[in-house]
C-alpha cells in the first residue's frame, strides 16, 4: 500500500483540527514513502442508528461459516494461483518481546522473496514475483524494517496505541502513532479501547479512532477491534461500524494476543458490517483477519469468504490482508507440492 | 487450463470435479441391468420389463432397472412375511447389532454413495457428501439404539408386521433410511419401492444389506413406477404403508387403504412459511433462505418456499437476498463448488417452468440473478418472486423447484394468519431475535416442524412430519418409532360381527303409553351445540327403545347441518386448547364430581337399556374413574426435549389436533362415550361427538353434567342421529382435523376413505371389539397419542 500525498477527503463532520495535525505529520514524512493519490474512507459522523438495532445470530452465522470452506473448492492451477494471491495479502508479522533489528531484517528479506526462485519460475511468475502485502512490527522496529525494505515497494505496518491492550493514556497513544509514522510506517495498526465497546460508549470510541486517524496522517489506519475481548458478535459489528464511521481504512479482527483471535464467525460479522457500511456510504473499507490463521487451507477459506461475501475487489492487498507469521511457510510447501507433485520439507524453504 | 498469472487476475474458482471412477465402474458392472432385491438375492432383469435411469445433469442413461410387476411385489411381500417371525423374535440387542452394522457399512461406503446419489438425482456433491449420507448413517446408528431399548421403552408393544414403503426421489437414500431404520428396529420386515427416477442408491443399499449380513427377506427392494407402488399399497400381505411423496398420491393411498386395517403414515407436500420479523438477523435470514429453498434445487417437501417478510424491512431484506443470489453457482452436481445442481428430470423442470410462467402472468415480479447455466441437462436458476399475494397461484401450490415467493406482513398476528393460510402444514421457519415473539409464533403456526432462526435441520432423534394436508405420522425420534409399533393387545382383539347399520325411524312409536293417570313431565333430549341445547335442524326425532323394544324416549335426528353447526361451535372454542392443562384437569375433575353425584340417575338410565344393576353401577363407576384418569393425565402427557445437535433445544410438543370428530361405540353407551371424549378434551381438543346410536340418552343426559361443570361452550358438542351419515359428514369436513370412529368394518372403511378429503388423522376400530372396562384396552397413552400431534420446535441458542 502506498502513501497518500493528497489531502484527506473530508465530509465536514470530522473535527477541523484534523487538517492541521495532518499537515504537521506530512511535513516530516520521508519523501520515498509518498505515493500517488489514492481514495480513502473519509468516515462519517457518528451514526448510532446504523448499528443500534443490529442483530447477529450466533448459530446462524456459525452455520454459514461452517460451510464457507465446504461449498467451494479450488484445485490445481487455481489453487496455486489462490495461494500466490494469499502471499500478496499477507502482513508478515513479528510482534514479540524479543524482536531485534536482526530479526526484523530476516523477516523483511523473506517478505521481499517469499518464494524460492525455482518455484516462482515454475509457477510462471518469473517476470512478476510475488511479494507480501506488508511487514508488520512494533514501532521501535519500524526503522530497521524500512531500511531492509527500501526499494521493494513493500510498506511497513506498525502496531501502535499501546498494543496490545491499548490502555495507555490517549496522548501517549497518539504520540506513538506519530512516532511510527515519522519512522516511516505507511500503515498503522491501532488497537481500540475495548472498554468503550463493553460499556457502549460509542462516542468515546468514535472520538478515539478519529483522533488516531488524524494522527496517522497519510498512513493508513487499520483498526484492531480485539474481537476476542468483545465476546459477542453484536459488539463486533458495532465496533466495526464505529471504527469505519471514524475513518478506519481497514478493520482488523485481533491483536493475535487475545485468547480467541480471527475466527470465521467473527470475520463474517465484520464483513457484513463492512458491506452495510459500503451500502450506506459507497466507501470500500479493507479487512484484515489476524491471529490463528496458520495454514494454506485457512488462506483459501478466507479468500473464499472475501470473494463470496464482498467480491473480487476484496481479493487484492489494498482491501484484504492476512495477519500471519507461520502461514507463509505452509503456503510455500503447498506450492512446492503443486510444482513437483512431491510433499515438501520446511527445511527447504527459507525461514522468515 | 488457464495459467496461474491469468487466474491471479480473474480469481475464478475453476473446476473442482469429484472423481466418479468407482461409481462408473459399478454402473458398468451392472450394465446388463439391475434386478429387484428379494429374499436376499437380486433377481435377473427380464427384457421388456425394465426402464432406464438417467443422469439429469448430463442427460444420459446411466442404468437399466427392473419394472416391478405385481408378481415381483408378491414375491417380495412373501419373502418379508416369511422373514417376519424370525426377525421380530430376534432379541433387540441382536437387531441392534444388525442396524449398527448397516450404519458402519454405510460409513465405509460414504463417498461411493454420495457420488452415486449425485449422479442419479442431480444434487450437488457438497450436499450428498455433507448432508444426505451422514444423516443416513446417523439414522441407522440412532435406530440401532432403539432396537436395543425397544423392549424396555415400549413394553407390551409389537411390530406392526410387513411394511410397504414408498419413497420419493428428492432424498433417495435418506428417505430409505428414514423408512427402513425404524421399521427394522421395531422388528418389522420391509418391502421398499424407491422412486422411479432415483432407484440406484436403494439398490446399492441392498448390496450393503447383503454385505452386512442382514437376514434374508428382512429388507426387500422392488424398483418400478407408480403401478409398482400401487401394487404394494394394495397388497393384502402388507400391514403398514409408509409413504413420502406428493399430497395427491398420498390422498389416493389413503383411499386405497381405507378399511384394510393397514396402518398408514404419510409425509406429503408443503408450502412452508419462512417468516422474517423486523428484529431478525437479516443476513442470517438471507442465508436461511439459501438453505431453505436453494438446497437440493428446492426439491424439498419442507422447503421454506413462502417468504413472509415484515413490511418495514422487506426492501432491505430483498436487496440482500438478491445480492446473495448472484453468488449461487449452478452447475455440474459433481463439481465441489456448485450450490445448485440439476432438477431431477425434464418433466419436473417443465413443471417448474410452467409455474414460473404462471407467476409472471399473474403479475408477480420475477428476479433471477445473472447466473450461468450449463448448456445441457435439467437446470433452473435460483428464482425469487416478489409482489406475490396469497391469491397468487405460486403462493398456493408447491413448485418443488428453486423458486421462492415473497409476501409482506405488518404485524405478528398477520404473519401467523398468512403462515397458516395454506392447506399444508409441514414446516415453518421463524426469524426473530425476540424469544417471546419467536416462541409465540412457533406455537401458533400449524406445522409439524418449526425451526427458529434456522431451517431444514434434520436429526434422527427428532420427529419429522406434517399437520393438515402435509400428512400424518412422524419419522425420527420416539414419536417416529411409534408408527412402527402397535399395542400387543390390539392385535388379538376379536372381530365384531357385521351388523347392518341401524336405520332410525322418525315415525311415532306404535306403542301405547296407556294414558297413564299420573303423566310424568315429558323430557326432550336435544342436541348439544355450542353449550346450548338445540333442536335438530331436520325437525325430526326418533324413538329410543330398551333391549326389549319398549320406548325410552326420543332424541333428535341430527343431520349434516347440525354437524356443520357443531364444528363451527367447536372451532370457536379454541381458548380451551390455550388454557392451562391444570385448568382443563380441574374441569374434568368437576365433570367426574358431578357425574358421580348423579350416579344413580345414570345407573337408572343404563338399567332401562337392559343392563343388569351390577353392570349399570359398574359402568357409571368406570366412567367416573376414567374421567379422573384423564384429568390426571391432562398436565402430565409431556413432550420431550430431543437430543439433536449441540446448543439446540429441540422441543417435541404435544399439541391438540383442534376440532376432533368422535363416533362412539354402540356398546357401553356411557363408558364408551366417556372413553373417547375425555382423552380428547383433556389434551385440549374440542369434540363433536356422535354417541351410541342405540342408546343415545346417556349422552344427552350427560350434557347436563357438562353444563354444571364449567365446561366452556363449544368444547363438547353432541349430535345424535344415524351414525354413518353423521360420521361421513365429519370425515369429509375440512375443519375437522382428526376423527375417531368405533364401529363396523364397513363404517371404518367409509370413514377412512372420506377422510382423504383433507387427509385428517383417523383412528378407527377396524371392526374389532375392545373391552371398554379394561384399563389396558379402554384407556391409556395410546388414546393420548391419538389425541395429539407432535410439533418439533428447533431452537438453537448461543451468544
What features would you describe in this structure?
The complex is a heterodimer of chains A (352) and B (799). In chain A, α3 (76-89) crosses α13 (296-309). Chain A is globular, with a radius of gyration of 19 Å. In chain A, 58% of the residues are buried. Chain A has helices spanning 17-27, 58-71, 76-89, 101-112, 117-122, 142-149, 170-183, 194-198, 202-216, 227-230, 233-245, 264-281, 296-309, 327-340; strands at 3-4, 34-35, 90-93, 134-137, 156-159, 187-191, 220-224, 250-252, 286-288, 322-324. In chain A, α12 links the parallel β8 (250-252) and β9. Mean pLDDT of chain A is 91; it is low at 1-37. Chain A has 14 helices and ten strands. The longest helix of chain A has 18 residues, at 264-281. In chain A, strands 9-8-7-6-5-4-3-10 form an eight-stranded parallel beta sheet. With 799 residues, chain B is of the alpha/beta class. Chain B is 41% helix and 18% strand. In chain B, α4 (92-108) packs antiparallel against α6 (125-153) and α23 (613-633) runs parallel beside α24 (671-682). The chains are: A alpha/beta (352), B alpha/beta (799). The A-B interface holds A 53, 55-64, 67, 70-78, 80-82, 84-85, 123-125, 128, 232, 272, 303, 307-308, 312, 315 and B 1-5, 7-8, 11-16, 126, 130, 279-285, 287-288, 291, 327, 336-337, 339, 433, 453-454, 647-648, 796-799. Chain B: It comes from Lichenifustis flavocetrariae. Chain B: Residues 48-486, 543-762 form the Aldehyde dehydrogenase domain.
Compact summary:
With 352 residues, chain A is α/β, with parallel strands linked by helices. Helices cover 46% and strands 10% of the residues of chain A. Chain B has a ten-stranded mixed sheet with strand order 13-14-15-12-11-16-17-31-25-24, sandwiched between helices. Chain B has a six-stranded mixed sheet with strand order 8-7-6-9-10-18, with helices on both faces.
